[in-house]
Design a protein that fits this description.
Helix content is 39%, strand content 20%. It is built from eleven helices and ten strands. The protein binds 2-{3-[(4-chloropyridin-2-yl)amino]phenoxy}-N-methylacetamide.
Length: 357
């Protein structure tokens, strides 16, 4: 009996998985196991022998059973420890941030400007970026000998010999969009035309593609006074100030008469722009009353209708508002600087998203 005890306690101690333990259980205390066989032999014993061997066998059976369950619990603990070691997770690690895109400042400013003029009743008009020299120049009273038409300023589309279509250019302003809109819908009309424009120029302050927004308001009695009010409202809303002072300087454009360049009062203290105060003037746009010949060219009778037009650079007003020092930042492929200037993916303006007060 002691042999049996030593044998099984030894085997149980050595077993290193649950199926080995189960085999040992069957072998030792199962129905046909060694202990059970011994118990069956009790019948053949004398009562005296049985009185000693019976309790001893029962005790041995209990001892083996508890050794089996103790070992089983030990194996389970070891398995759990092993799993915990393998599946260890540091819940204090910082999260992995996702890469996300941003709205480009040019797009954002275009949205802001469109929303401000929309509040004053201007619709947004769009048109082709390649247009004929009629729409880009002649209709605007820009004569054939005008320096702007020289090849060094304007991108002309290639034409093969024998191609008798009129010359086409990459539009140098969005005015052709306004001509086409007047032709199509006639007067009265109130539109802005934002978009890409092209000039063959590249240095610190010029890129061959840039962005412009032009505005046009034609009705029976539109005057420079209306122009002044509209521009004041625009500047206040765009630069988020309560008061502005505009300065109209006489100027000349072939497509307006009279013409004026418009400056806003500002200060540049510590390198940051403040609009509406100070002793500096910031030029932001060109404007004037639409030339009668231009109205006529667009199919609008200048004896019946009149109005103002203006044009400004979007890239420039974006730089001014967001303090971006170098135009070339807009066209750099590394857009990490966008975060520096506070643009984020969620920072999307809506039409009335706090832009006009
Ligand atoms: C500037 C000057 C200007 C216009 C653009 C315009 C358009 C039509 C008729 C008359 Cl269809 N005028 N546009 C008028 C005055 C100035 O832009 O300095 N832009 C950056």
């Amino acid at each position: 009996m002691d042999d049996l005890r030593d044998k099984y306690l030894g085997l149980i101690a050595e077993a290193n998985d649950e199926s080995a333990l189960e085999n040992l259980r069957v072998q030792a205390v199962g129905k046909k196991g060694e202990i059970s066989l011994k118990m069956r032999e009790l019948g053949k014993m004398t009562p005296e022998e049985r009185q000693i061997a019976g309790p001893a066998l029962n005790a041995l059976k209990d001892e083996i059973n508890s050794a089996l369950s103790a070992k089983k619990a030990g194996l389970e603990d070891a398995a759990l420890d092993e799993r915990l070691r393998g599946e260890w997770l540091d819940v204090t690690l910082p999260g992995r941030s996702r890469r996300h895109g941003t709205i480009h400042p040019i797009s954002q400013v275009t949205e802001e400007v469109s929303a401000i003029f929309a509040d004053m009743g201007f619709a947004v008009a769009e048109g082709p970026q390649i247009d004929s020299d009629w729409y880009n120049f002649d209709a605007l009273n820009i004569p054939g000998h005008h320096p702007a038409r020289a090849e060094m300023d304007t991108f002309y589309m290639h034409r093969s010999e024998g191609d008798d279509r009129p010359p086409h250019v990459l539009r140098t302003h969005t005015s052709p969009v306004q001509i086409r809109s007047m032709e199509k819908q006639g007067a009265p009309i109130r539109i802005i035309a934002p978009g890409r424009v092209y000039r063959a120029d590249y240095d610190q302050t010029h890129t061959p593609m840039f962005h412009q927004v032009e505005g046009l308001a034609i009705d029976k009695d539109i005057s420079m006074a209306n122009l002044k009010w509209v521009l004041e409202e625009f500047v206040k809303a765009y630069f988020e100030v309560d008061d502005v002072e505009l300065r109209f300087r006489a100027s000349h454009f072939p497509f307006t008469e009279p013409s004026a360049e418009v400056d806003i009062r500002c200060s540049w203290e510590g390198g940051t722009l403040k609009v509406g105060e100070g002793d500096d003037w910031l030029e932001i746009l060109g404007s004037g009353m639409v030339h009668p010949k231009v109205l006529q060219n667009a199919g609008v009778d200048p004896r019946e209708w009149q109005g103002f037009a203006f044009g400004m650079g979007i890239d420039r007003i974006a730089m001014l508002k967001y303090g971006i020092p170098d135009l070339r930042a807009f066209f750099d492929s590394d857009l990490r600087w966008l975060r520096h200037y506070g643009f984020s993916a969620l920072d999307v303006p809506t039409l009335h998203g706090g832009l006009s007060g």
